[in-house]
């Protein structure tokens, strides 16, 4: 969990960021994050019929979705409005946002659909293992290589690179799957990001499951 480890250092900046939104409810912020992610997914899907230059607004929408995803919890804690219902809503919204984004990007034509499917499974398993620890009474588990913040940043960067490499630079590819060539296999930056999600996601899911299993009392 790379980015989650910096939360304490970012606390002063997060306090400034949440200040203009203290009058919002945490639920409003959660729904806004979902709306931004959904918009990003739609724009990514439209790339198939338009231009990869649209990956720039997709990157921006993913970034903003991540900001609002952080804000809902920050505002809830700052205003004393944390609740079990809000926690549930946050998890539900986050999972739908993950599904929307991966499916939208898969439709764009710049991702191998099988790799995208495996990436989505890994992301969902990662989140499931974290909440399963909470379900058995051990509290929410955030350990591992792939937190939600990590994958949103990776997705936003991948979208920006697809946009940048689609401009008429000398190194710009001529086909969606011609960015890299290795052993005769063609793949894009998005495929690389999804492959990372598969590997890091499975490692995170399994490590979380083992950590929870070892923390539970043995069967009599």
Short account of what is shown:
68% of the residues lie in helices and 3% in strands. The chain is mainly α and 220 residues long. A hairpin with a 2-residue loop joins β1 and β2 (185-187).
Question: How would you characterize this protein structure?
Answer:
The chain is mainly α. The chain is built from 7 helices and 2 strands. Strands 1-2 form a two-stranded antiparallel ribbon. Helix 2 runs antiparallel to helix 3 and helix 2 packs parallel to helix 4. The two termini are 34 Å apart.
Number of strands: 2
Structural class computed from helices and strand pairing? mainly alpha
Regions with pLDDT < 50 over 5+ consecutive residues?
A: 170-174
How much β-strand is present in the residues?
under 5%
**Which descriptor suits the 3D outline?**
globular
Helix content: 55-70%
The whole-number mean of residue pLDDT values reads 84
Radius of gyration: 19 Å
The major pleated sheet works out as: 2 strands, antiparallel
- CATH-defined superfamily: CDP-alcohol phosphotransferase transmembrane (TM) domain
CATH class: Mainly Alpha
């Amino acid at each position: 969990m790379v980015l989650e480890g910096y939360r304490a250092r970012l606390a002063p900046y997060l306090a400034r960021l949440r200040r203009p939104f203290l009058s919002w409810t945490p639920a409003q912020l959660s729904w806004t994050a979902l709306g931004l992610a959904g918009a990003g997914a739609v724009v990514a899907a439209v790339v198939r019929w338009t231009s990869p230059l649209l990956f720039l607004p997709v990157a921006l929408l993913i970034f903003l979705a991540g900001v609002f995803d952080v804000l809902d919890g920050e505002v809830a804690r700052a205003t004393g409005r944390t609740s079990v219902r809000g926690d549930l809503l946050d998890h539900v919204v986050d999972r739908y946002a993950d599904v929307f984004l991966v499916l939208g990007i898969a439709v764009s034509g710049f991702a191998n659909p099988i790799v995208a499917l495996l990436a989505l499974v890994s992301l969902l398993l990662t989140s499931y293992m974290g909440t399963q620890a909470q379900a058995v009474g051990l509290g929410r588990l955030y350990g591992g290589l792939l937190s939600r913040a990590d994958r949103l940043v990776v997705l936003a960067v991948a979208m920006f690179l697809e946009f940048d490499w689609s401009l008429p630079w000398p190194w710009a590819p001529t086909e969606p799957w011609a960015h890299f060539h290795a052993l005769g296999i063609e793949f894009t930056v998005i495929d690389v990001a999804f492959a990372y999600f598969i590997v890091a996601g499975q490692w995170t899911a399994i490590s979380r499951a083992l950590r929870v299993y070892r923390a539970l009392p043995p069967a009599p």
